[in-house]
Amino acid sequence: xxxxxxxxxxxxxxxxxxxxxxxxxxxxxxxxxxxxxxxxxxxxxxxxxxxxxxxxxxxxxxxxxxxxxxxxxxxxxxxxxxxxxxxxxxxxxxxxxxxxxxxxxxxxxxxxxxxxxxxxxxxxxxxxxxxxxxxxxxxxxxxxxxxxxxxxxxxxxxxxxxxxxxxxxxxxxxxxxxxxxxxxxxxxxxxxxxxxxxxxxxxxxxxxxxxxxxxxxxxxxxxxxxxxxxxxxxxxxxxxxxxxxxxxxxxxxxxxxxxxxxxxxxxxxxxxxxxxxxxxxxxxxxxxxxxxxxxxxxxxxxxxxxxxxxxxxxxxxxxxxxxxxxxxxxxxxxxxxxxxxxxxxxxxxx
Length: 350
Description:
Layout: H1 17-50, E1 149-151, E2 157-159, H2 173-185, H3 190-199, H4 206-214, H5 218-234, E3 239-247, E4 250-258, E5 263-268, H6 273-280, E6 286-288, H7 291-299, H8 304-310, E7 315-317, H9 330-344
């Protein structure tokens, strides 16, 4: 056991016979004190057990008290230096053999730093000693797009076109990304975002922040749908779950599709089978007339006149193509039949 209060080192010149005898007496008293403390602890444990209580827990000594030695270039007798495993000749702590933390960093700027004193005559340059500092720069960056205006001989004016990622707005893509990330991922509220951006010199209002969060989401929705399409193509299995909640006074449902590699969510106001089949289409509504549907309609007694009208159709893409048409038109008959087929056809046929 390590003494928490060791005696100070006494120089050899001051170790007189009297000092030596006093040191020996002190060590004797300390040893006796340790034995008495151990005995008292044992007696307390016995008393606790007699009272029906638990004895004191026994703690193992910490391994941090063990002194480690610097790694030897030759290693131990077997040629094993024991680097990084806490064993062998070096006795280094586990995980100590690591690469430099800044070795893989991208260096954006290099600054030469000369010594702070005047160099004596005859000094020779021996290279550099690198010291890498990581930093972050956040600042406003305003760009003026000067759209060229040309007038043709026939009087027509031709004007330059803004980059498509601006969506005709006055806030760039990086600013929109930052606002979306801070609000949705870091849970930063709009008032705090407004205060922060204003402090950085961005002239923006709370309403404009709300517009950045809710507008121009088409690209994100397309990316989300593409994620599901790709995942369904490469995944061997998927799991599905849904949950309901009230939203704006209506019963809403959120559907989750995923596996170990991806997760996809969509909110709708229905949890029917046809709603799930539409979600699997990842935004592309497509109704196809196939042999299974024709066979099923014949079994269910769909009128021959309706079947003749439907034979000219094979595929209808997008719900708006038929939703507002006459219910007796071939398109409407086709989609009504598809809905019937989707809701009642056995799973093996879908």
